[in-house]
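User: Hello! My lab partner asked me to get a predicted holo structure for this protein. The small molecule is fe (ii) ion, SMILES included with the sequence. Please write out the structure tokens.
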Amino acid sequence: MRVLLFGGTFDPPHNGHIHLLQQAIRAVAPDWVVVMPACLPPHKSPSTTAPDLRLAMCRCFEPIFPDLEVSSWEIEQGGASYTIDTVAMLENRFPGAQIFLTVGSDMLLSFTGWKDWQQLLARTILVVQSRREGDEEQLAAAAAGLEQKGGRVVFAGGTPLEVSSSEIRSGRGRKNIPPQAREIIRRYDLYRPHPTISIEGARRLAKRTLSDKRYTHTLNVKKLAVKLAKQYGADPDKAALAALLHDIAKERPKAELLQILQDNAIIAKGAAQRPVPVWHGICAALLAQHRWGVQDEEVLSAIANHTAGKPGMTRLDKIIYLADMCSAERSYPEVDWLRALLAQDLDRAMAVSLGQNILWMRQQNKPIDPVSLAAYDELRRPYHLEAF
Ligand SMILES: [Fe+2]
Ligand SMILES: [Fe+2]
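Assistant: Hello! Below are the structure tokens for the protein in complex with fe (ii) ion.
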């Protein structure tokens, strides 16, 4: 069996990469191709594009070969990605397979600087590709040097298609981005400076994005969240920002929310299996991070968990959850009682409100999020509230 490994940062993947992979496939005739975006590439400065989104953009490789997988393995390992570790993983997964490693010209010239490069030479066959016209001689010399040290080198040949990811990031050569990657760039507005959205910016965004009814709700949540933050010692600005963005994805179609969860498959692992009403908060946090430059983990957590809660809720998480439950336009039977409790005791109000919601969902035969049940079980204990 022949396994072809095609690794890179892919920030973003472009037609030059597709061309290289096609040439390598032609040269090697592999049974299986693994496209492997790196987590932190050891030879380059770290990418600022979220690993999940680089992984999602790599879907553009799928149509070019039937037996091809885009692997999240290096990203899931975290930290610096070393090819030798990936090769060891592939040897485990495909015992006895011959592993082919694609190496661009720049990489071939620096190959003896790679971690355990002698091991790589012994355990893989290098598939070398020119990335620039006119570098053939230099490559042939480098390859001959590696062959003298016991390496096996295949030249993929063909004319290079000169495209550079860094040019694309700086706004040139966008025509060289395959449609699947272009869609991710558009959805998250990648490769443009993303200063953190201001509170006023978030308000304007909510106003132009949401229906009048939901915008009013959002303003009410903000007002109460800021009041609670001042009362309970949280940061009122963080509360305002989280409140203004908490429902920003609520009116997007379910298919689009699912797409966002799939684009962020590692960071949002398991989210697509949670009940659909939970999705809009998680998606709002992902959009806040990728599109609107919100880096504050507390704000992102409060947005993501405003529907279901989570074990280990922070003060800000509770404030946004309860501001959402008790905002001025809410009129369910227990709301006035809950408002009175909230004015006295944030933690107790949180436990009671989450318990009420779980009970209501159970009565309505709606699916109950296991994350909510775990959160409730933790919150109820100090108050000896009923277990579910
Ligand atoms: Fe919501
Ligand atoms: Fe809401």
